[in-house]
Amino acid sequence: MSQSETARITIDTTRVISEISPLLFSGFAEHLGRCIYEGIYEPASPHADENGLRADVLAALRELNFRSMRYPGGNFVSGYRWEDGIGPTDQRPRRRDMAWQSIETNQFGTDEFIRFCREIGTEPMLAVNLGTGAIHDAANLVEYCNAQAGSHYADLRAANGSASPYAVKYWCLGNEMDGPWQIGHLDAGEYAKKASEAAKLMRLQDDSIELVLCGSSSSKMPTYPEWDRISLETCWELVQYHSMHYYAENSADDTPSFLALSAELEDYVDTVAAVLRYVKAKRRSKHDVYLSWDEWNVWYKAREKSDLRGGWQAAPPLLEEVYNLEDALVVAQWLNVFLRKADVLKIACIAQIVNVIAPILTRADGILKQTIYYPLLMFSQMARGEALDLHVESPRYETEQFGDMPLLDVSAANDADAGAQSLFIVNRSLSEPTPLEIHWRDINPARVRMAQQLAGNDPKAFNSWEQPNRLTTRPIDAPEIADGVARLSLPPLSFTTLAIEL
Ligand code: AHR
Questions:
Q1: Scanning 69, 132, 281, 426, which has the fewest C-beta atoms within 10 Å of its C-beta?
Q2: CATH homologous superfamily of 21-383
Q3: Cis peptide before 352, with omega less than 30 degrees from 0?
Q4: How far apart are CA 450 and CA 293, in angstroms?
Q5: Degrees, nearest 5: CA angle 148-149-151
């Protein structure tokens, strides 16, 4: 197929990949830079509500509708003493956070985080410190959050304002423990032993919790995928999820390859999923473990410019990546991958939510929605029901990194109960529109109810405080459906969503 040929998507609603887990649309907030302080929590701001939370940020987060929120790190958690962050705020210590070489004031801690989660209607997902922390610290935090009053830590929670337990269901067993940069880094065998003992003790506190084991912190790690095999072989029956992390970059300024990144992302999922199957078979287990991609995003510009150290300041501006159009198209594809791999991938947390490699930036006078805000919003609003296995015939193009690749990257969600179907289409072409036909094989849908698009002609264009709405999703003319076929032309460098009424 040459670039000018018509692409064709064939949809058959009986070809179901899996139910889409709502937790695929989750976030991550770390005590890092200005994510918590000046991002979520800023009592002195005119935008602050009665809890010191920024109402303008809360409104945007509610719109994004994150289903769960991972906290408090990240690298930060591996040196964090959670007891510093509870009790009267004027008695909480100012500590040196070694991970980001910043000052942690501890004005925001577990109780404030739970309040924040309730404000935005999201499920908390707490990471425990398996770096400097002992396994009893992890178990004590489970008691603090989940036990009925009547014992030391549960009584502390009650004294701090919440008689009822928080019922935190999702817990991460440390963070990126395979990374030499991690405080308290361990090798795979050591981590597996510590994680299994922590899991045992945490479960003795509350058997209903669900645990996420640390997988490799990237597919580029020298210990990948052995780390995953070793940690899973020891912890298989104790955990429900195994984590993946990945940050995409275009340091080589090779946009055609960058825009084809879903090839690498899918390969990463397939490899870790193969490790899951191997370990399950080796252990002759009936138990299943699913994937939690609990750190993912584009991150390279702010990594090169800043030295990732906060100079022992409180809330220094760190990792404040500015996102452009090509980044948003990569984020859209990543979300497509989540739907295409919905059978094994059940949790995904964008890293992070405010200021730090984030869809939202704050200033004293307001917030800015970056380009990546929009694909997140589209998926969060529209990806419901079951993911469909599509037949996509697309014109192709050449890339340095991945060879010959299709111009279109597509996913679909079908919600039969709601009579709704959604299509998510990225056109990777840099210069030419791509004509598209959509064919429905087993149904004749009523109409395309709404069509929206994020598009531009400059892959490096971004939203700024001066031009905040340069790149947003805009409504386009909804294509007609005649005899089970819809036709439209996709502009280059675009992300199009179609909301279809069945
Ligand atoms: O999200 C920023 C950092 O990236 C996290 O703290 C760490 O887990 C990862 O390396």
A1: 281
A2: Glycosidases (3.20.20.80)
A3: yes
A4: 30
A5: 110
Q: Is 178 exposed, middle or buried (0-12, 13-18, 19+ CB in 10 A)?
A: buried
Rg (CA), the chain: 23
CA 308 to chain centre: 21
Ligand 1 pocket residue status of 74, Cβ below 6 Å: yes
Residue 3: pLDDT above 70?
Answer: no
Q: Which two tokens stand for residue 327?
A: 């980044």
User: In the structure encoding, which two tokens stand for residue 234, read together?
Assistant: 């020891």
Confirm whether 480 is a catalytic residue.
Answer: no
**How many whole angstroms from 186 Cα to the centroid of ligand 1?**
17
Verify whether ligand 1 is closer than 6 Å to residue 175 (CB atom): yes
- How large a percentage of the chain has pLDDT more than 90? 98
Which residue's alpha carbon is at the smallest distance from atom 6 of ligand 1?
74
pLDDT at 303: 86
User: What architecture does CATH give domain 7-14+387-501?
Assistant: Sandwich (2.60)
Has this prediction a pTM greater than 0.70?
Answer: yes
Domain boundaries, the chain: 7-14+387-501, 21-383
For the segment 261-276, what is each residue's pLDDT rounded down to a tens digit? 999 999 999 999 999 9
320 is catalytic: no
Which of these is catalytic: 38, 83, 104, 176? Answer: 176
294: helix, strand or coil: strand
How many angstroms separate the alpha carbon of residue 424 from the centre of ligand 1?
28
